[in-house]
Specification:
The complex is a heterodimer of chains A (about 280) and B (about 160). With about 280 residues, chain A is an alpha+beta fold. A five-stranded antiparallel β-sheet of chain A has the order 4-5-10-6-7. Chain A has a four-stranded antiparallel β-sheet with strand order 11-12-13-14. A three-stranded parallel β-sheet of chain A has the order 1-3-2, with helices on one face. Chain B is an alpha+beta fold. In chain B, helix 2 crosses helix 5. The longest helix of chain B is centred in the last third of the chain and has 17 residues. Classes of the chains: A alpha+beta (about 280), B alpha+beta (about 160). At the A-B interface, strand 1, helix 2, strand 3 and helix 6 of A face strand 4 and helix 3 of B.
């Protein structure tokens, strides 16, 4: 591995001071992507600035809504009883994330900032319309997660900005959610994945949020399906139509993990099954 | 704030306090194997896929190949060497792996056993699904997983009997 210096600042102010001082430095959270990137020579930082020693950056507060510190690990999320109860779809995605060893160090903020189109945690957060708080020394801003991703490995973060918190509103009492992921084996990165949130009143859908991963340059909301569902009385025909719309509205690529054709087809199937599961219909 | 090229850190390794001077770019596995002589922990893929480098830090299984060494300061690390009894006798989990034929070449075994230990420490009554989930990040390329899962079940039963 290339040599680099390693800093462990104890406050955000120290973080920004270091970032200012050291050109070619990178932030590191859990490190499960950064260390692999350095090993494979894709990243060549002069120094790493660790965010792990900053107090409160890994707190999880659930009280009506939720504030999840960016440094909370995937295991912290799985083990949090309040998140399990109030935001089960987030915990479901967390359980599908890598292996135990990876979940124990990988952080939710790191997963988002890595900006992979297959980021497992992005999908449930997108359908729950999460916001992220981005901070620099001078200012703090909150933006919808939907506006955060710009492309593979690219976000709207400016060089000194840090994603510090993920913010969630309470879910509507009639909200039904589900998450589904297809990988070659269970711990693999997703070939495709889907999260769904539906607010239902008997059979009428008031709100629909559907997101798909690994099928576009960014984790993607499928707004055509959302628009079709909202206000509609849902029948099997709508779910079949959603499957078709999903196939038509994703733009996957062929890579080592799968082909464009397969990803398109499996995304349709996952959308159908995720909807059926959220609606508690028998899978067909 | 720290960050000179080399730094001294103190942590608990297998119940003993150790102090070691570490380069900023070194990973925990480098320090364990090359500076502290603890070669039971193996490096396989070096990318967090295979789990042969698994150690336990503050009760949680982690890949030591992805763990910056400087981050273990003040923490408690357990490696496969830490499982031996006072007279170098094998622990219950290790013995169960031997008895169930859960070892062939043995390269994955330390990592497998550390993942199994982290599981059994937090969940003394694991289902087969729990065991398979806990071992998802540990690859064995020779003997297969059936005997390994059996060994963890056997160890769980024995540990319970001991209580």
């Amino acid at each position: 591995m290339n040599r680099f210096k390693y800093y462990k600042p104890r406050s955000l102010d120290e973080v920004w001071e270091l970032k200012e001082k050291i050109p070619g430095s990178l932030f590191i959270a859990g490190g499960t992507d950064v260390i692999v990137g350095i090993k494979n020579n894709e990243l060549r930082p002069q120094a790493l600035i660790s965010l792990r020693s900053i107090p409160e950056l890994d707190d999880i507060e659930v009280d009506g809504g939720a504030r999840i510190g960016a440094l909370a690990t995937i295991s912290d999320i799985i083990q949090n009883p309040e998140l399990r109860k109030d935001y089960p779809v987030l915990v479901e995605a967390a359980k599908s994330f890598g292996s135990v060893q990876i979940r124990n160090v990988a952080t939710i903020g790191g997963n988002l900032c890595n900006c992979s189109p297959c980021a497992d945690m992005a999908l449930p957060l997108l359908v729950m319309e999460a916001k992220v708080r981005l901070q620099t020394t001078k200012k703090s801003r909150e933006i919808p997660l939907n506006e955060f991703f710009k492309g593979p490995g690219e976000s709207c973060l400016s060089p000194h900005e840090i994603l510090t918190d993920i913010l969630l509103d309470p879910l509507h009492k009639n909200a039904k959610t589900s998450f589904m992921k297809k990988g070659r084996v269970k711990m693999d990165l997703a070939v495709a994945s889907v999260a769904v949130l539906l607010e239902m009143e008997s059979k009428t859908c008031h709100k629909a949020r559907i997101a798909a991963g690994s099928v576009a340059p960014v984790p993607l909301r499928l707004s055509k399906i959302e628009t079709m569902f909202e206000g509609a009385t849902l029948t099997k025909k709508d779910v079949t139509e959603a499957q078709r719309l999903a196939e038509d509205n994703v733009v996957p690529i062929t890579d080592v993990r799968s082909t464009e054709e397969y990803r398109r087809q499996i995304t349709g199937v996952l959308v159908k099954r995720a909807l059926e599961r959220a609606l508690e219909w028998k899978e067909t | 704030m720290e960050g000179d090229v080399r730094m001294e850190i103190a942590f608990i390794l297998n119940s003993s306090e150790v102090t070691v001077t570490v380069d900023g770019h070194r990973r925990l596995i480098d320090v364990l194997r090359e500076q502290l002589g603890q070669t039971g922990t193996k490096e396989g893929c070096g990318e967090g896929e295979c789990g042969s480098c698994t150690v336990i830090i503050d009760g949680r299984a982690v890949n030591s190949c992805l763990y910056p060494a400087l981050e273990v300061e003040g923490k408690s690390v357990t490696t496969i060497e830490g499982l031996l009894g006072p007279k170098n006798e094998l622990s219950i989990i290790q013995q169960a792996f031997v008895e169930q034929g859960a070892i062939q070449c043995g390269f994955c075994t330390p990592g497998m056993i550390m993942s199994a230990k982290a599981l059994l420490d937090s969940n003394p009554n694991p289902s087969e699904e729990d065991i398979r989930d806990a071992l998802l990040g540990n690859f064995c390329r020779c003997t297969g997983y059936v005997q390994i899962v059996e060994a963890v079940k056997e160890a769980a039963a024995q540990l319970k009997g001991k209580q």
